[in-house]
Amino acid sequence: MGRTLTYPKLPFNTVNRHNDRATYDLSSIHSIINTTQVLHVSFNTGDSNNDNPFPAILPMIGAMGSFEYPSADINEPMDCYLHGYVSSRIMNLARAASASSPSPGVSTSTGTETGTETETTTENTKQGLPVCIAASKLDGLVLSLTPNSHSYNYRSAILHGYASLVTDPAEKLYAMRLMTDSVVAGRWAGTRVPPDGAEMASTAVLRVRVVGGSGKIRDGGVSDERKDSGDESVTGRVWTGVVPVWETFGEPVRDGDGRVGEVPGYLAEFVERRNAENRAYAVGAVRGSQEGDH
Amino acid sequence: MGRTLTYPKLPFNTVNRHNDRATYDLSSIHSIINTTQVLHVSFNTGDSNNDNPFPAILPMIGAMGSFEYPSADINEPMDCYLHGYVSSRIMNLARAASASSPSPGVSTSTGTETGTETETTTENTKQGLPVCIAASKLDGLVLSLTPNSHSYNYRSAILHGYASLVTDPAEKLYAMRLMTDSVVAGRWAGTRVPPDGAEMASTAVLRVRVVGGSGKIRDGGVSDERKDSGDESVTGRVWTGVVPVWETFGEPVRDGDGRVGEVPGYLAEFVERRNAENRAYAVGAVRGSQEGDH
């Protein structure tokens, strides 16, 4: 309470357009990341001379957490843990970047990619693969008199940081639980855990040391331009307003080999709570009741 | 009918993991792009020596189209037009890249960025800013006996291409209508159009010449591992199944200066049709009824 931590405004994360909608609050940014089921992670593959000038984007699952300070609040500094449809490419790039980056005080590893070295909190923050992480939530279609004034209600967050493979089994286990519970709160405890040795070995988790972040939030109603608002041939013909948009979780459908018939409490509550929150936010956003600026 | 165009498998767009879920069909990929309200666009800012090694990601609005062949079907080659919360950065980068890229047969422009030169179809395909465009749709949470077998039902598409500013007014108008109608089908005709001179000048549109694309689709139910399926202490305790997830469009809320009271037909139909389609797909995906592979 009363304490608001913000990300520093750096050249690569400062919002220039509509900067009245910008936020640098850790709490806002981390909350958007944590309630977004699919993150988009961008990185360079390093083969730009090989007829590939394109950065890559992967849709991934992720969540904010701190293994060193597990009780860290949402408004405190945290890492972003990632797991998902991870091609070996991003894992190999992260491993190579961790091994080869200049790291004062740590001798550069020369090809000993055995995956056994435990990374510590004293490592260089900039060791790892540079990544950009985006989370975007659409909250409404804002339909004005003319398409040029159309907009979206939305919340978006961007993080910049350095991704490394998590090698410490305790940290990996912490991250696996964090990410499972970010998909459905309480799910980890409702399943067969812990993972066995083969499962631990086959699972790759990335930890992103966040060095910058920014968010952007637009809510509220329609803004029309004076030239159209004063023209009755326009106002009498064009419908203006907002269509709220939100993510809906449907009735759970039993499948697979579990023999439990009734939907467990944690899952029923998750579906009910998330649907109510999502709908309330999108509908409330029309009146701009969520945040100050719009 | 009977004709299926596919994107070539290139080093930067070939799906390696779960390649049974991969698709290169233009039709599938373009459909995912066109029904995704927020695209994620990644590009490099070119100032990597300036303490910024990160690719950037922007959430943007976009749609597939062909100005040269407006009647092109969804399964035919198309460009991707982009518009959105466009910082001047991506526009400046695209303008600079178009001006400076090697372009056989076209003399390199030397600083005459007047915005008046009309780009033609004979331009070098590789002229422009290299971008990666991602569209991802979450269709369901797949909850198995152990978190390691958890998955998502989803559809994702990736495009690679070269972005240039659209300078021809006729093409810009085409793209503005295309993108407005991609947000709500029929909206363009229901508003005050065409844009006036000031609106045309202040609107920036990017055309991405697509050089590669890929998609990934996962549907179906839960896959449990034999070691868990045969363990009654696990199957008797863990609920398994799928939670369908889809994007819901709420009741339109009147706001702004339009004096039309009733929600117009095209908008009511759009909301109703999109909700029905989204829900039907997500619920149907549990049984894997949408596509062949899962």
UniProtKB/TrEMBL annotation, chains A, B:
It comes from the Eukaryota. InterPro entries: Pyridox_Oxase-rel, Split_barrel_FMN-bd. It holds the Pfam family Pyridox_ox_2. Residues 98-123 have a biased composition (Low complexity). Residues 98-124 are annotated as: Disordered. Signal peptide: none annotated. PANTHER family: 5-NITROIMIDAZOLE ANTIBIOTICS RESISTANCE PROTEIN, NIMA-FAMILY-RELATED PROTEIN-RELATED, FLAVIN-NUCLEOTIDE-BINDING PROTEIN. This is Flavin-nucleotide-binding protein. It comes from Aspergillus taichungensis. The lineage of its organism: Eukaryota, Fungi, Dikarya, Ascomycota, Pezizomycotina.
